[in-house]
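Example record

Each entry pairs one chain with its bound ligand, beta-D-mannopyranose.
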Amino acid sequence: MMLNRGASLFRRYEGNPILTPRNWPYPANSVFNPGAAQVDGEALLLVRVEDMRGFSHLTVARSWDGRTNWVVDPEPTLEPEPNIREEQWGLEDPRIVFLEDEGKYAVTYVSFSQGGPLISLALTEDFRRFERRGPLLPPEDKDASLFPKRFGGRFALIHRPIIRGEAHIWISFSPDLKYWGEHRVLLPVRAGWWDCHKVGLGPQPMETSEGWLVIYHGVRRTASGNLYRLGLALLDLEDPCKVIRRSQEWVFSPKEAYELIGDVPGVVFSCGTIVDEETNELRMYYGAADTSVALAVADMDEVIDYITHC
Ligand code: BMA
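Structure tokens for the complex follow.
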């Protein structure tokens, strides 16, 4: 058995980290875990920014090449609202999809409060004005994204509730983005493996000719803390409840100093990718050590070749 071919799929950008608190136009403790989308010809990152109270909000950064010359909104783009109870401890870890039928971007993010983390939805056309649709499911829930398409008329949501202390990846369906059902486990943790203690969706699911490509994070607790690594799965194009493949190995793990040193050492955590349709380049943006934003690039054909042979 050939092992660890997966670990060479993603190559780190030489200019990493691409965004740090020092680049920020206002005081910030850390900038990490951005959602990503190609918007009006530009790469757009919706970055989680943690302030010095320990609360997060989301701020947009834009770049023409997705690598350099990031222009960051001068003020927070989407902040907790004082009168929305579930947002009192902040907004975290957004995932973005363009809903083709609605012609709007859907942002699923974690609202955090004393009641526990839960998934909220906001719709936007321009990343300036947001229409809040509120919580989708009860706490404790995180790591969620819609699919850009419907399945038999229904929206689908990948998410990660914690149930009886177990942290598996689930999928649920809704006719209207409001009422959710048909809940089932999609990718469970694997006892003994690198993803034994928790799994959660990474970026938004990506449509490919072979299926929906999913990057997910897996957590193993160690004597010196949690290790967050990334693995792959492939879901059936017509029925995303069907897992066609799941990588045995992780394909990305903390190695560089900016991933090993920071507020939470040993974390690579991705919430957003951009696929360049012309070059087939898969750009994965990720939070490094809960402190800065970094970029790793893969060739989509190589990734698909790898996962279809897993
Ligand atoms: C998870 C999330 C992420 C974070 C990670 C590592 O539970 O809260 O936002 O990056 O932990 O601390």
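The first helix runs from residue 257 to 260.
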